[in-house]
Design brief:
The complex is a heterodimer of chains A (120) and B (287).
Chain A: H1 3-14, H2 17-25, H3 27-37, H4 58-65, H5 69-74, H6 79-90, H7 99-107
Helix pairs in contact in A: 1-6, 2-3, 2-6, 3-4
Chain B: E1 3-11, H1 16-21, H2 31-46, E2 52-57, E3 72-75, E4 79-82, H3 85-91, E5 96-99, H4 102-114, E6 120-122, H5 129-138, E7 146-151, H6 161-176, E8 183-190, H7 209-220, H8 224-230, H9 246-256, E9 264-269, E10 274-280
Parallel strand pairs in B: 1-8, 2-7, 2-8, 3-6
Antiparallel strand pairs in B: 1-10, 3-7, 4-5, 9-10
Helix pairs in contact in B: 6-9
Chain lengths: 120, 287
């Protein structure tokens, strides 16, 4: 399980307006491209010094590729990153303010504390 | 020696800027009351006539990331840009530009490390809404130099609550010993009960009103013993999955000093979270 890599995906997409749109419109293609080209880039050193070992598990890749935020929560993605990116992806599709955020909560309503561990 | 002009602890609600600047049909029904409370709170800082602001907050995965995560960090830069694209996108926050105070930053780093905190530092720090929101509420003209202090309340493993308190006490002691005639306000923001990215988010109130009531009591009376007896890294998950931001309030209680009653206390029960505002004047009533 690679919670760190899931969080890295959410983090690097959330901070890039072009990637937010790309992930909204083509989630599977974006995840596939990102895992091949970006997953091993260490953010604060030159790209040629990339890591060699980071990959998603099949379950993680599928959850990202299907925008399945319930599964991502259950896999232990960081709650703040998950919420922030998914607001950017889907809030625009709802008429009422906070309607997406409330639906997000309802879809997780089978959870009580303790929630999945977000430690990386 | 420097004077501590005010100690201020506050929540930082990223929706305040948009709520307070919106008009007509876009203006939420709670905006007028919220603005009135903020303007009253702002006066507590204005009255203190500070020269420099030490700003305690927590980066929300903007510049600081899991490949290199500091627990406590002090900015040491001549200037700080403020706010990020995703904060503009979600909250409508403006880009900001702040002057730094390198001398006080350098002093706090050296003296803080010598006092037992192995502080990280940054010479190029872009500050996020944990620091820009209190500037917007308390000093919207953003005309004073700042020293940012970042804490990790966000990415486990976190420091223990008592370390936040000890850091607050240390900052207080060091600022009081700073050989300067400047008036320093120490301002820190955190959260009461808060849920983000979980089943209890965005309800009609904060996720745990009973925790909020107790927390306001602890803060208003700087009841460090009470808070430390009840609060642990494990317990803070229970009131809401983003409640570890309460440890920044505990840091500020350490700055205020054990059992020192706040001179100004206010709160506002909003949807989603409770807002709370506290000011102490260490030398008695300001001026």
């Amino acid at each position: 399980m690679s919670k760190y890599l899931l969080d890295k995906f959410l983090y690097t997409v959330d901070r890039d307006p072009e990637l937010v749109e790309r992930y909204r419109n083509d989630p599977r293609g974006t995840v596939s491209w990102w895992e091949a080209e970006r997953a091993n880039v260490v953010l604060n050193i030159p790209e040629m010094e990339r890591s060699t070992w980071l990959t998603f598990s099949d379950v993680e890749r599928e959850a990202l590729a299907t925008h399945d935020y319930v599964t991502l929560f259950e896999l232990g993605c960081h709650n703040f990153l998950l919420l922030t990116l998914f607001i950017a992806l889907f809030e625009r599709d709802y008429d009422e303010p906070l309607a997406f955020q409330r639906e997000f909560a309802v879809r997780l309503s089978h959870w009580t504390v303790p929630y999945p561990d977000i430690s990386t | 020696m420097a004077t501590i002009a005010a100690v201020i602890a506050s929540t930082h609600h990223p929706f305040y800027y948009r709520a307070s600047t919106s008009a007509g049909a876009n203006r939420p029904p709670f905006a007028d009351e919220w603005v009135a409370k903020i303007e009253s709170f702002r006066e507590t800082l204005t009255r203190a006539e500070p020269d420099v602001l030490v700003m305690v907050g927590s980066d929300h995965f903007h510049q600081l990331w899991l490949d290199n995560m500091p627990q406590f960090l002090i900015g040491k830069a001549p200037f700080y840009d403020g706010n990020f694209y995703n904060e503009e996108r979600e909250f409508g926050l403006p880009r900001m530009f702040l002057q730094g105070h390198e001398e006080l930053s350098a002093y706090l780093l050296r003296a803080g490390i010598d006092a037992g905190f192995d502080l990280a530092f940054s010479n190029e720090l872009r500050i996020d809404h944990s620091i820009t929101c209190p500037l917007i509420t308390l000093r919207p003209q953003a005309d004073l130099p700042i020293v940012p202090v970042y804490t990790n309340i966000f990415a486990p493993p976190l420091p223990q609550p008592r370390r936040f308190v000890e850091l607050g006490k240390t900052i207080r002691r060091l600022v009081e010993a700073w050989p300067s005639d400047q008036r320093v306000a120490i301002i820190g923001t955190g959260h009461l009960s808060l849920e983000l990215g979980g089943p209890r988010q965005f309800g009609p109130h904060g996720p745990d009103p009973e925790f909020d009531r107790q927390a306001v009591e602890w803060i208003a009376s700087a009841d460090l013993d009470g808070a430390l007896a009840e609060v642990s890294l494990d317990s803070l998950w229970l009131p809401g999955n983003a409640t570890h931001g309460f440890m920044d309030f505990m840091l500020m209680m350490g700055v205020a000093g054990q059992s020192v009653q706040a001179d100004y206390v206010d709160s506002l029960d909003l949807f989603h979270t409770m807002e709370a505002y506290f000011t102490w004047y260490p030398k008695g009533d300001s001026q």
